[in-house]
Design a protein that fits this description.
heterodimer; A: mainly alpha; extended; B: 208 residues; mainly alpha; 11 helices; 1% strand
């Protein structure tokens, strides 16, 4: 009789633990990494395994290109992601409307999956890292009222171009403004001399 | 009667709403931030910054950090707000190069490069007759002045004697200051400590 009760208690205690361990295993699965060795992982996102040279405006994706990544990733996956939404993907792959999607900047395929394609880590200069850590982050934490942390892990972001160049691909040419074309403010000119 | 009461109640409701709105923006700092950001959208030149940033070893992500995150679970609206605040540089980012009294500037420090209308960043107490009122405030909180003005800004008026302009005292004030000091000693105290007089008027009279 006691053994029976003990067994029931054991099952009650162990079941949530079993569920938790299952969840952890699921979290560890990363189709981007696994597709290097297992081509059937392609079917997580594509309706068919595209053959070499085969193209499609929808990239043979399961969902609409603009939404395909959102099955696993947040639309606010990183700062600035949402701000690019709806902008024209100038010289890089765009979604069904030619707008920026996650895969505009990030190639979902790691190096070695698609022949002749190179992907890049998000590298930053030491000076930039220090600036973000000691100037940007403390100010953001204070301003937002939430603890903001820098993320300097550079791998597994699979950029289509090296860090700064991916920005320049779209932002280089159009930004030319007559930046001092504003009326001078004489009243306080003398007051604000340093 | 009921109609009158309804009108009064409606008026009070409207006044309450207006009152709340006014109270919320009475500080004006939020408005100021928004306006400055708007100015930057018009005036900012990536071209002008590109070569300098490259030379200084800064990446695009210094001003537009995409690699900052909040670990808390937040709503989508909150996350969008945080993304927006993080992605577009705050004043500290600009001021680090353009207005950095502690470390020194590595970029032009003319405020009107970004703040088109300087009146918008002028503190509200810098109003009528501020020239004569500022001494009290500066003595109470010197750091407050230095959040906008470099120390040399004070010295520019209070120390310089090389221009025939009326800054603090007229030229030759040394010879006539005794009359004014006796007429209104408190006036001297607005700027000077009592010991300031003693530096010249030591016991026994006049020594320099």
């Amino acid at each position: 009789m006691i053994i029976k009760y003990l067994l029931i208690i054991f099952m009650i205690v162990s079941f949530p633990t079993f569920l938790l361990s299952q969840e952890e295993e699921e979290e560890e699965e990363n189709p981007h990494v696994e597709m290097v060795d297992d081509e059937f992982v392609c079917l997580d996102c594509h309706t068919d395994i595209p053959k070499k040279g085969q193209t499609s405006p929808t990239y043979f994706l399961v969902d609409a290109p603009s939404e395909n990544c959102l099955g696993c990733h947040d639309e606010t996956q990183h700062a600035g992601a949402k701000e690019h939404e709806g902008q024209k993907a100038e010289h890089l792959p765009g979604d069904e409307n030619g707008n920026i999607a996650c895969f505009t900047c990030h190639d979902p395929h790691p190096g070695g999956v698609i022949e002749g394609r190179t992907v890049y880590d998000a590298e930053m200069s030491e000076r930039s890292k220090q600036f973000i850590e000691f100037v940007v982050v403390p100010n953001l934490t204070e301003e937002l009222g939430h603890e903001v942390k820098p993320e300097f892990s550079t791998t597994e972001v699979y950029l289509r171009e090296p860090s700064n160049e991916i920005c320049i691909t779209c932002h280089e040419a159009p930004i030319k403004k007559d930046w001092r074309n504003h009326p001078p403010w004489y009243k306080f000119t003398d007051m604000y001399t340093y | 009667m009921n109609r009158t009461m309804a009108i009064i109640a409606f008026s009070m409701l409207i006044m309450g709403v207006i009152g709340c709105r006014t109270q919320g923006t009475s500080d004006g700092s939020e408005d100021m931030k928004t306006k400055a950001s708007e100015d930057l959208k018009v005036n900012y030149s990536h071209d002008a910054h590109k070569s300098v940033m490259e030379k200084e070893g800064f990446d695009c992500f210094v001003c537009h950090p995409m690699n900052v995150e909040v670990e808390e679970e937040l709503s989508l609206e909150e996350m969008i707000k945080i993304s927006n605040k993080s992605f577009f540089p705050g004043k500290e980012t600009c001021h680090f190069c353009h207005f950095n009294p502690q470390a020194g500037n590595i970029a032009p420090n003319q405020c009107d490069i970004c703040h088109i209308n300087l009146a918008e960043i002028q503190p509200k107490n810098h109003n009528f007759d501020w020239t004569s009122k500022h001494a009290v405030f500066s003595k109470a909180n010197k750091e407050s002045c230095e959040s906008c003005h470099a120390p040399v800004f004070c010295q520019d008026c209070h120390k310089r004697r090389d221009l025939p302009t009326l800054r603090v005292h007229d030229r030759n004030f040394r010879f006539i200051h005794g009359i004014e000091a006796r007429a209104n000693p408190k006036e001297c105290g607005n700027c000077h400590q009592v010991t300031f007089c003693d530096t010249c008027h030591i016991k026994g009279g006049y020594d320099y």
